[in-house]
Amino acid sequence: MLKIGVAGLGFAGMLHAKAAAACAWQAHGPDIRLAAVADPRGEVTAGLARRHPDLRSFEDGIALARDAEVDAVVVAVPNAQHAAVACAALEAGKPVLIEKPLAAQWDDARAIANAAARGGVPVSAGYVFLNSPAVAWAIQTVRAGDLGVPLHIALTHAEDYAAVQGPAHGEWRADPAQAGFGALGDLGAHALSLGLALCGPVRRVSALMGRVPGRTSATDDHASALIAFAGGAQGTVTASRVARGRKMHLGFELHATGGSLLFDHERPNEIRVCRSGDDGFATHLIGPGHPHYAGFLPAAGHGLGFADLFTIQMRLWAESLLGGAPFAADLGFAMSVEALLHDLARAAGSGGWVDTDQRGSAA
Ligand SMILES: NC(=O)c1ccc[n+]([C@@H]2O[C@H](COP(=O)([O-])OP(=O)(O)OC[C@H]3O[C@@H](n4cnc5c(N)ncnc54)[C@H](O)[C@@H]3O)[C@@H](O)[C@H]2O)c1
């Protein structure tokens, strides 16, 4: 039995907590239990503790990480606090699943990597969309070479939360000290995770970052990038939190020598495919033939949602800790995304290209 602790019970943390509970109701789910939660907002932890008397609750993620009743820790606190909670867990020998981005600052990401190396404890990262059945199928298909060689990918993560809800959907996202980057780290990180998974390592980048004039937020509202993959493909990245009308437009359009793929998480249960010889795109609804779907439903086309991706992620993470297949978004993958975020920011600052093999110690 693996006892899971969740630090931070905001937007992401509640999804992780419910995912741990949901795994217990999957027919062949891993042997896990939601054992503890932490959040300084007492009204949230008190409400849960009342309904779940066995649940341990803490005001701070570090205390949860050190609790002897917790075996593995989900870190879903604001970005600047990831490192303190993660390092406390790693120093206690406990594996962590850290929300993206790994940290607000590069030095904090390095501190997490060093703590993991010292203790020999696995770090996993919350690139949850990699677990979408449609996305996971696309990754498998492209990596198997079924569509030939990737030529171009357009990666986008656009939402309008900062245009609609005020500064930045939670004040901490507007503060560089708390968040690190704005739209780039919050949304661009997801887009980059799909790019790396589909097209492999990146060789060089150029980028623009910007803020909407007159807004109080000190972090970027949108970012655009050109990326050259080491394997020869080229790509574009768009991240925006002020894209009016867009709610969850995390998507990609991939062109390869033997076909093309189109995915948009605003329509998460379908993927569009055109293979060479086809006259255009065909739309495929996801079903038990796509990765991870059968754990939820026996029938195709009934659909999974965003919260289900957290259950899939929790299951895969727990299974990896219980001796199953390695978790895909491991520390190396997370550090690659992290380094790319800093490469893009450096490119935007310099106005030129940044070679990813010349990062040096400052990412
Ligand atoms: N994977 C995704 O799709 C996704 C979605 C949303 C957020 N996130 C990530 O999750 C993290 C949290 O974002 P959010 O949107 O949930 O933020 P949020 O502001 O909604 O929630 C953060 C929670 O952490 C609590 N907290 C603050 N300090 C704490 C501490 N020391 N110990 C315990 N709890 C503490 C806050 O009280 C709050 O409830 C960020 O890293 C963010 O990038 C990921």
3D architecture notes:
This protein is an alpha/beta fold and 363 residues long. Helices cover 34% and strands 23% of the residues. The strands form 2 sheets. The protein has a 9-stranded mixed β-sheet with strand order 14-13-12-11-7-10-9-8-15. Helix 1 (11-23) links the parallel strand 1 and strand 2. Helix 6 packs across helix 9 and helix 9 crosses helix 11 (331-350). The protein is globular, with a radius of gyration of 20 Å. Residues 7-13, 38-41, 60-61, 76-79, 81, 99-100, 126, 128, 170, 186 line the site of nicotinamide-adenine-dinucleotide (NAD). Nicotinamide-adenine-dinucleotide is lined by residues 7-13, 38-41, 60-61, 76-79, 81, 99-100, 126, 128, 170, 186.
In short:
With 363 residues, this protein is an alpha/beta fold.
- Count of β-strands: 15
Average pLDDT rating: 95
Order of helices and strands: EHEHEHEHEHEHEHHHEEEEEEEHHE
Strand content: 15-25%
- Regions with little confidence, pLDDT below 50 for 5+ residues: none
Number of helices: 11
Tell me the helix content: 25-40%
**Secondary structural class:** alpha/beta
Note the topology:
Layout: E1 2-7, H1 11-23, E2 32-38, H2 42-51, E3 56-58, H3 61-66, E4 72-75, H4 82-91, E5 96-98, H5 106-119, E6 123-125, H6 133-143, E7 150-158, H7 161-164, H8 176-179, H9 183-199, E8 202-210, E9 222-229, E10 234-240, E11 249-256, E12 259-264, E13 270-275, E14 282-285, H10 306-321, H11 331-350, E15 354-355
Helix pairs in contact: 1-10, 4-5, 5-11, 6-9, 9-11
Bound molecules: nicotinamide-adenine-dinucleotide.
Nicotinamide-adenine-dinucleotide binds next to helix 1.
